[in-house]
SMI1/KNR4 family protein
Amino acid sequence: MKKVLKKISETAIKQGEFSFTTKQIETKWLGNQPATLAEIQEAEARLGIAFPADYKELLLITNGFTTPNENVDPSFSKISDVAFLKDVDAQLIEIWTEHIELLEVAIKLARSIVIGGLTEEQYFLLIPPVIENADWEYWKFASWIPGEDPYEGLENYFINVLDFLKSA
């Protein structure tokens, strides 16, 4: 995953279409310092869950990652800012609950954890499995997407981000 994140950083900075800090431009890196195991464990304890392996891997590479394309993809949050969607944007869940045909999505939103896009127009969500040892779900979620925009995992998501950058 680190190679993909590095390639995203280098490609976005080279294209020069977005604003980056001087440090990001000099280091050719859109991430932060890695999270510590203690920070990850504290967040897991605070939320009462154990994160999926690929999210922990991301955090050990970078504790937060700036989006290279603000209108298309959310930035990833520092582990200290990660929270349940119900605690961040309860109104969004309420809106989806009002429509019976969208109830399945609303139920997943109510369980989801926001790991990206906290102050942006779209979120990146982790949805814990209901059954132990089942797979986590990974969604990019915005009001203009009719429901979820699912991914098979974080590396799959970042590969899509890189492909989008290269096609721009």
Summary: The chain has eight helices and five strands.
